[in-house]
Task: inverse folding
């Protein structure tokens, strides 16, 4: 009984997930999440909002809505690995629905944990080829890292926050590139470089994106800067060679 979860509300569920042979791969007596934040598999993201409090549902999930084409290897051996392309059966009990928590000032350590958790979730989506979901998770990670602070970070925590932001922005650029959002990917690279001007990954990707847009002179300058930081990089040498050939006039017959 009671209304179904609405967008932005937080839910708590009891969940069991099993393979076709009956092996349990998910077991959580109280899993709490906000549907739409990308923190759980899509079977739960899509299924739980159709439920009412107290309801018990079974969701048979094809592999794109579970752990995707690659499956999942477990670090903790209490449960088996999820094989590639494995369908899953979830038994879900909706325990509670409540309004989503207002963003609260968090200590730096909590912001780092939340940001890392959401970035890892983005990496999971990226590995299974769901680049839109990956981008959503990376942006949620940035929101956690940039959220209100309960106290100013110390020097070490401040450096860790900056490093995590740069990683998330680089990941955003990678997902945006897969989605063919070139301008957004370039903006993510520029944001990463505003934090860490000598970040090699951001410089390389920025140079590649500028070259894609035909801005060869700018791309060459950026890639040369990247090469100064990593003189042995074959990728940078290849990009610069390609640009040089494109810019040089063809030899006359």
Result:
């Amino acid at each position: 009984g009671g209304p179904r979860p609405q967008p932005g509300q937080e839910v708590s569920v009891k969940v069991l997930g099993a393979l076709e042979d009956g092996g349990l791969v998910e077991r959580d007596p109280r899993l709490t999440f906000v549907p739409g934040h990308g923190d759980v598999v899509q079977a739960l993201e899509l299924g739980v909002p159709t439920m009412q409090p107290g309801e018990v549902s079974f969701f048979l999930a094809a592999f794109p809505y579970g752990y995707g084409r690659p499956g999942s290897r477990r670090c903790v051996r209490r449960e088996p690995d999820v094989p590639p392309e494995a369908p899953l059966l979830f038994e879900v009990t909706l325990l509670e629905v409540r309004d989503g928590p207002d963003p609260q000032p968090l200590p730096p350590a909590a912001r780092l944990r939340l940001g890392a958790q959401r970035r890892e979730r983005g990496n999971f989506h990226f590995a299974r080829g769901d680049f839109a979901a990956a981008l959503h998770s990376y942006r949620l990670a940035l929101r956690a890292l940039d959220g209100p602070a309960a106290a100013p970070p110390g020097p070490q925590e401040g450096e860790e926050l900056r490093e995590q932001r740069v990683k998330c922005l680089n990941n955003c650029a990678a997902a945006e590139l897969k989605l063919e959002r070139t301008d957004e990917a370039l903006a993510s690279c520029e944001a990463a470089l505003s934090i860490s001007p000598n970040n090699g990954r951001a410089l390389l990707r920025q140079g590649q994106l500028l070259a894609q847009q035909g801005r060869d002179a700018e791309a060459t300058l950026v890639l040369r800067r990247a090469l100064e930081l990593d003189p042995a990089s074959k990728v940078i040498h290849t990009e610069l060679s390609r640009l040089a050939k494109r810019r040089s006039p063809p030899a006359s017959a």
Observations:
- The first helix runs from residue 42 to 47.
